[in-house]
Design brief:
Strand content: under 5%
Number of helices: 3
Radius of gyration: 17 Å
Order of helices and strands: HHH
Largest sheet: none
Distance between the termini: 46 Å
Helix content: over 70%
Amino acid sequence: TVLGGKPAVLSDEARFTLGVLGGVAIGWGVAMLIVFREAARLGAAAAAPLLRGVALSVIVWFVIDSALSVATGYGLNVVPNLVLLAGLIVPLWRAGLLGAARP
């Protein structure tokens, strides 16, 4: 169901889109896991450019996904987007890997 208790009705196209996006999200998660494992192996200084690249890619995703969510009437999707964005950016920023070190 969706908000308000109404059952979700999905067209074949919507089911296909959700399936493809699910696969993309899982692939993205696997790629992130590999990148973060490699970054941990390299150490903070050597991994910083790699992690900044990941941060940039997530920021680009956030801007596009959130803007399209709002534009298509699904602005509430920005909330989980913010959680995901903060879950990545805040730890990298606090670790000093994005140009601002924690005191």
